[in-house]
TrEMBL record:
Annotated region (Thiamine-phosphate synthase), positions in chain: 130-355
Location of region: Unknown: 1-129
Cofactor dependency: Mg(2+)
Protein residues bound to 4-amino-2-methyl-5-(diphosphooxymethyl)pyrimidine: 177-181, 209, 248, 277
InterPro entries linked to this entry: Aldolase_TIM, ThiamineP_synth_sf, ThiamineP_synth_TenI, ThiD2, TMP_synthase, TMP_synthase_cyanobac_bac
Protein's recorded name: Thiamine-phosphate synthase
Organism encoding this protein: Desertifilum tharense IPPAS B-1220
Record-listed 2-[(2R,5Z)-2-carboxy-4-methylthiazol-5(2H)-ylidene]ethyl phosphate binding positions: 274-276, 304
GO molecular function, one term: thiamine-phosphate diphosphorylase activity
Co-factor note (free text): Binds 1 Mg(2+) ion per subunit.
Amino acid sequence: MGDIYEQSRAFQPTVHRILDANLDRAREGLRIIEEWCRFGLNSEGLTNECKQLRQALAVWHTPEIRAARNTAGDPGTELTHPQEKERSSIGQLLQVNLCRVEEALRVLEEYGKLHHAKMGEACKQMRYRVYLLETNLMAYQRRQRLRDSTLYLITSPSDRLLTVVEAALQGGLTLVQYRSKTADDLVRLEEAQKLRSLCDRYGALLIVNDRVDIALAVDADGVHLGQQDIPIGLARQLLGPQRLIGRSTTNPEEMQRAIAEGADYIGVGPVYATPTKADKAAAGLEYVRYAAEKASVPWFAIGGIDLENLNQVLDAGATRISVVRAVMQAEQPTLTTQYFLSQLTRMQTMRSLHP
């Protein structure tokens, strides 16, 4: 028994060094996440949770543990990886630091048991809180980006699919839905993966039409469901709380039902007759006016909207629109996207000045 005690004391400085390094790592990662919650998302709740976690960790970062630090003799300070030198997006930056915090807390949980009886359990509970923070942060960020998006491009089959979508992204597009009703699944998967990479590069959201499985496979930001697709509740079970779910609606009853079932956003239309929805009668501008007055979630007017009738839709109360052919078949997708966005911004500015 005495030998075990002596061995434990001999290893104590090493344990303290491990605890010090991982307390630093976890607190630094949380601070990086906190800054985005505060300045990027303006979320008081998420910012406060990061701050509370940092303060809870600080309680365990005692002078005794700090005194074991030996930066000059730490071989890990010279180790690096090429992926650590670049970040392609805010999403990747947040994900990397969330993983860093979670890994550090796991180390603290295990080695903390050798330091203090309560430290392991405390770090275990903090790790679960960070898992929840990760879910809430991803969900909050996606919903905020959705609210900020005024133009929603829905793709149609095209040999120029990626070229057109990238041109629209270059014009300021921030929301894309991949829609392909006839392609083989392998083709859909490949195209969705390529669109995912494109959207990541430009900081845009990617939604997959109908197919929850493909949305999950390519780590899309969500899925869009028609009236005949699976229930929103089932899609939520499969996708989890952090992804977006949209629902097409053609009348007030469908709208209210979609909102009650938990849709993050809805499509309102078709406003005009469109070959994309050949079996659907036009809902008309009256439904747009109803949505402008009654919808409690973000909504996008959709169906046959183009440069010629855009002002009619905006005058009816729309502040967000979805388009297909108007961009997918445009000779200059970038300029067309910029024009749509400029008109939507102009209308939002006018309404804010004259509510």
